[in-house]
Amino acid sequence: MSCCCEREMDGKSSPISVSSLATILSFLLLSLQLKWGVRAQMTPPRFDGLVYGETAEFNPENILIEAFFDPVCPDTRDAWPSLKQALHYYGSRLSLIVHPFPLPYHDNAFVTSWALHIVNGLNSSATYPLWESFF
């Protein structure tokens, strides 16, 4: 029985099994995927969160909440007062960093997220009043 995947070794024919070819091909594809996957998971080159309150530094003894909010999302609007109430209740024991996370199905979400980053860079004390005005 002859196979289309034969190779010559010392004048003798030796078939390469289909499972061996599949294993080699799988290994090559996996190694390429891992190479691309690692590049896709790089840490952002800059900090992208908006720190809530007057503290610009994170205290490791505090509880840190990182929230990923869409600035024009109705669910974010509904969750914001409760989160703000918890921040005021626990005071300095709690820290909040909000990451603007624009969802593609909310109109103007991307533009408002950029506006928050711009305002935060110019005057960080105006960031959250602007955030609340979007609601």
From TrEMBL:
Gene3D superfamilies with a match to the protein in the record? Glutaredoxin
Q: Which UniProt keywords apply?
A: Membrane, Transmembrane, Transmembrane helix
Q: InterPro entries per the record?
A: Thioredoxin-like_sf
| Chain segments annotated as transmembrane | 16-36
What name goes with this protein?
Thioredoxin-like fold domain-containing protein
Keyword hit for Membrane: yes
